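Chain X:
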Amino acid sequence: MIVENIINKVYPKISKDYSCEAIVEIHESIFTRLNVIPAMIEDNSCAEYDWSENKIYIYTTNMNSEEDIIKALIHECVHSNQNKELIDAYYFIGLDYNTNPCEIEAEYEEGNWKKYKLNTISIG
């Protein structure tokens, strides 16, 4: 599996640099992970961090390149070091994904993805 190979090669470096000790699990989608029937909405989730389990879930349906995988790992590692209550509070007061400072920080760090690049691999 190409996604798993990329994760195995880049995640040790990313986890060290971001002080992230989360376990990474690979799933086709959030729906297959939760074993539920897909909703009538489009799911564009690439990854998710679970604070209670200290796990990063990577969703392969929306991964099209090595870059996507690396950015997702970085993004979720940043979240692993953030305060979940603070993230939730930002959403509670009405901030959306694009205005939530915790998401902005995680997306900013994605800009470092080339540091972990192996080569150009298309997985889509």
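Chain Y:
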Amino acid sequence: MKDKLYYLYIMASPGGTLYVGMTSNLINRVTQHKNGEIEGFTKKHGCKKLVYYEISTDVSAVIAREKEIKNWRRAKKEELIKKFNLHWNDLSADLFKQLCLLCHSESQTVSKRTG
């Protein structure tokens, strides 16, 4: 059985406001942010661009990392993003493609085993 994945992520607004969050379903959560479906900070500030993410199978580590990054000064958050995503591109389209390909290949493996 495959381990469950957890994601720490950073969303940005066009004006540069940053939001740090965590989830077990990054595609769904980013889609919710982009569509303004989540009331609160990200909707109010228009944080719709995925600029950074980390993946782990350890939920406790992701929660701790989220708290750590939330306590950083903005400059340190910007440095982290720039190391991962120099031009602050929206990473969601490529991420969605990668995860969909991964899910598709896993479903092919399952159907081959059950078929």
